[in-house]
Design brief:
It contains 26 helices and 26 strands. It is α+β, with helices and mostly antiparallel strands. The strands form six sheets. Strands 7, 8, 9, 12, 13, 14, 15, 18, 19 and 24 form a ten-stranded mixed β-sheet that branches. The chain has a six-stranded antiparallel β-sheet with strand order 20-21-22-23-25-26. It has a four-stranded antiparallel β-sheet with strand order 4-5-1-6. Belongs to the class I-like SAM-binding methyltransferase superfamily. RsmB/NOP family.
Length: about 700
């Protein structure tokens, strides 16, 4: 910048800005947000629109708007399938929540967290503490660090209250095949994984979760969330949900199309139910958002219904209050299904949850405030923006038969939550454009032809498609065309890859005669029932550095669909290469996240320790075995560990010293590192101890 320009800029500075210290003082007085204009939480068009639609009960409008202007309470959910969920709940209620009683922060009394009345077993809680207060307040430091640590380890999930509702209404069980169509960022997916692992004694449930998202980058956020739960029954894929491909599986040597027992259809939406946390919605809200999203939402829901098994359940949900995105989509889907779908009555499934029934009459409004009550009144020039599926059915009998009142609309002021909409659909028979219906789970399933994904096509004519024979032939041709090696599940062809983003490494299953596995089997004395065919790596060449594991059902899906689906991630890491371990005749150590899966099959390398030993392992920086009880030390010697030094000799390098010192099992060492970062460890010890028995049984 030249001298003259600098001079002009100094002359244009506002009065009082010359003194940097004074200006900084003014900014400090204004607080953290002093330099930003406050967003006015008003939108006249929003108020006019929803008052006209009467979605809020008479006399409650002021409470509704007041709730929308208040910050959203923080909510957390304790991971339900972990064996120590009850211990974490006990620790929260009797330790941390008690410390919050009669506590004041910045002159404001802190409300003790309360359980969500409708969530089972008190595993979900909400509080008026904002994230800013949790992070900045010294009185809440221990509580905040406890929450952070447990969130990282997968024991606690921070999740909005209304977001927990769809998985609960899906009513998933461990044997169900589940599709999450729009899964990122993954909070609902983690709930579904928990439901699969309801019985922790079963390492490989029969069911699985396929979590899909159209955004490639958000898929990796989804992977991060799912990995916290350490499940071999999750697969993350990257596709447009409105055209997600049909998958095939091998059933007794015959290719059959995969139909899902449960489908979660949490579609993209305008998000006006999230105004309490996304305050930008206040100034950006317009009815145009809903009009533009309606078609996509209907296509996604239609595609989900096509892939649902007969007798299965699909949950459609949005974080929008707009009937164009809610009841209009459900009504159109029900009308096109011709009786194949029906709304389930779930009014008694979540006792304690307050909700409003779905509405049966609504109008369509353009962004400039023009209203239309029926399709015939829409000018031709508006037909690209407004579609006939946006209006309620005209026939009163058909409208009544749909039972739209069975939909659930959650209003923010009823239970201090965000706004939300949920509808539960049950498939009674095949969709009308399918040639033959799928069968119930456990019966032989027939192949069906693929139906249309564009609802507009269904309005004009019956849709033709490829028949069963052609689908089967195509599936078999993919398997037999010789383009891929046995056990190698690569990504789609390169010409498709450019549409999706990063290119993924292939999934390569370990051959039965691979020399890599016998040393592992011998070292850990694996049970003969161990499913070694489910082990895979992510490389076709060079040394295999990590071994992953999937359930046999996901193995079936991977082997039969590598050319039609883009898999981002699947399985769980169970072994990692450790070159220094070759002196013990095994080059692979256990991976922390794979312990829950492997433990039922391991019969060796397990040390039984006392509670005092566990305390030493969790609290000391270098827990040498000499510091443990004589019984534990004896077991370690029997396992073949070398001699122990109280301290590593200073003259030797770290590598040489570690080879001469008794090694803490890698899983314990990692668990100890995690525990060591928790302040107030004695109070939280009961939680940490529960993670240890997988690798070292308590005496």
């Amino acid at each position: 910048m030249g001298r003259r320009a600098r001079g002009r800029r100094l002359q244009q500075r506002p009065q009082g800005a010359e003194d940097g210290a004074e200006g900084g003082g003014k900014r400090r007085e204004a607080g953290w947000e002093g330099g930003y204009p406050e967003i006015v939480k008003e939108n006249k068009l929003f108020e006019h629109y929803y008052q006209e639609l009467k979605i809020v009960p008479e006399g409650e409008w002021d409470q509704f708007m007041e709730a929308l202007r208040e910050p959203l309470p923080a909510t957390l959910r304790i991971t339900g399938y972990k064996s120590h969920a009850k211990e974490i709940l006990h620790c929260l209620k009797n330790k941390y929540f008690k410390e919050l009683e009669d506590l004041e922060v910045d002159g404001q009394k802190v409300e003790v967290p309360q359980p969500l009345s409708w969530y089972p077993e008190e595993l979900a809680w909400h509080t008026n503490l904002s994230r800013k207060i949790l992070r900045k307040s010294p009185q809440l430091e221990k509580f905040h660090q406890f929450l952070v640590s447990e969130t990282e380890s997968g024991n606690i999930s921070r999740q909005e209250a209304v977001s927990m509702i769809p998985p609960l209404l899906l009513n998933a069980h461990p044997h169900h095949k589940i599709l999450d169509m729009c899964a990122a960022p993954g909070s609902k997916t983690t709930q579904l994984i928990e439901m699969l692992h309801a019985d922790m004694n079963v390492p490989f449930p029969e069911g699985f979760v396929i979590a899909n998202d159209v955004d490639n980058k958000r898929c990796y956020l989804l992977v991060h969330q799912a990995k916290r739960l350490s499940s071999p029954c999750i697969m993350v894929v990257n596709h447009d949900a409105s055209s997600i491909p049909r998958l095939t599986i091998d059933v007794n040597g015959k290719k059959e199309i995969l139909f899902y027992d449960r489908i979660l259809c949490d579609v993209p939406c305008s998000g006006d139910g999230t105004m309490r946390k996304n305050i930008d919605v206040w100034k950006k809200w317009t009815t145009l958002n809903s009009l533009q999203l309606h078609g996509l939402q209907l296509r996604i829901a239609t595609r989900g219904a096509e892939q649902l098994v007969e007798g299965g359940r699909m949950v459609y949900s949005t974080c929008s209050l707009n009937p164009i995105e809610d009841e209009a989509v459900i009504a159109s889907l029900l009308e096109k299904s011709e009786g194949a779908l029906e709304l389930a009555d779930v009014s008694s499934e979540l006792p304690g949850l307050k909700w409003m029934p779905g509405i049966t009459q609504w109008k369509v409004m353009t962004k400039d405030g023009q209203w239309f009550s029926e399709w015939e009144a829409v000018p031709h020039g508006r037909h690209t923006q407004i579609r006939p599926t946006m209006f309620p059915p005209k026939d009163p009998e058909r409208l009544q038969a749909m039972h739209l009142e069975r939909c659930l609309r959650i209003l923010p002021h009823h239970q201090n939550t965000g706004g939300f909409f949920v509808a539960v659909l049950v498939k009674k028979s095949s969709m009308p454009w399918n040639k033959r219906p799928p069968k119930l789970q456990g019966e032989p399933r027939e192949l069906v032809r693929s139906g249309p994904t564009d609802p507009a096509e269904l309005e004009s004519k019956p849709v033709g498609g490829i028949d069963d024979t052609e689908i089967t032939e195509r599936a078999e041709n993919v398997e037999n065309n010789g383009s891929k090696r046995d056990g190698v599940c690569g990504p789609p062809p390169s010409k498709k890859m450019k549409l999706f983003g990063f290119k993924e490494d292939p999934f390569v299953f370990i051959p039965e005669d691979d020399p890599l596995f016998p040393p592992i089997q011998k070292f850990y004395a694996l049970d003969p029932s161990f499913p070694k065919m489910n082990l895979l790596t992510r490389t076709t060449e060079g040394k295999k550095r990590q071994l992953y594991m999937v359930s046999k059902e996901l193995r079936n899906v991977l082997l039969n669909n590598s050319e039609r689906v883009k898999v981002i991630n699947t399985g769980i890491k169970v072994w990692c290469r450790n070159n220094s371990g070759e002196e013990f005749d095994c080059a692979f150590r256990l991976a922390q996240e794979g312990i829950y899966t492997l433990y039922p099959f391991i019969n060796s390398r397990i040390i039984t320790v006392s509670m005092e030993d566990v305390k030493i392992l969790l609290t000391q920086e270098n827990p040498f075995f000499r510091k443990l009880s004589s019984e534990t030390y004896s077991q370690a010697k029997d396992l073949g560990f070398t001699r122990s030094f109280p301290h590593p000799p200073a003259a030797e390098s770290d590598g040489e010293a570690s080879r001469k010192c008794l090694r803490v099992p890698p899983v314990l060492r990692q668990a100890a590192w995690t525990a060591h970062s928790v302040p107030g460890l004695p109070e939280a010890l009961r939680v940490r101890v529960q993670r240890v028995p997988i690798s070292a049984r308590r005496s």
